[in-house]
Design a protein that fits this description.
By secondary structure, the protein is α+β, with helices and mostly antiparallel strands. The chain has one domain: Lipid/polyisoprenoid-binding, YceI-like (Lipocalin). It has helices at residues 2-16, 21-26, 80-90; strands at residues 28-41, 49-60, 65-71, 76-77, 98-105, 118-128, 131-135, 138-144, 147-156, 173-187. It has an 8-stranded antiparallel β-barrel with strand order 1-2-3-5-6-8-9-10. Strand 6 and strand 7 form a beta hairpin. The two termini are 26 Å apart. Keywords: Signal. Residues 1-25 form the signal peptide. It holds the Pfam family YceI.
Length: 188
Amino acid sequence: MKSILKSAIILATFLGSLGSQNVFAQNRYVERNGEIQFEASEKLFEEVKATHESVTGILDVATGEIAVLALVKGFRFKNSLMEEHFNENYIESEKYPKASFKGKLNGFDFESLTDNWTNISVDGKLILHGKEKLITPALMFRKLDGSVVMKGSFIAAPSDFDIKIPKIVENKIAKEVTINVEFNFSKK
């Protein structure tokens, strides 16, 4: 119950930071089950891969502003010990419980979006492990059955977020992590 309440408070604060609710609500598309997957595997070693299927995202189709929030403990690994190490030793999820992205889609025009995929670069700030990094991923967007679908991938380095990898396993974890995202934003 505490976890649900904490998540609700974090989300409400996050959403409130996006601007005026009255104006924003008219153009707001929301996703509550967005998916983020990351892979940091090295060849010949055990797969380092996790998926989070409960990521919240908001897209303002009038301004092109986008915001995404993931509770870090929501990432699931095939190996439970790897998941424990991820949360306790690397990402320190008790100290840094959430990851977020806030940005703006460059040249986004909701009216011209069709069911064909359109590449759009997104300027934004990724916040992870208490550190911020400006990134500009190129993502794909399209309209589908009244929703706006977003998917794509980008690269991030653990070192950019001051995430320390112990020497004993540093050769088993990639220096650059591939992050895949998929969201289906629905009008609210």
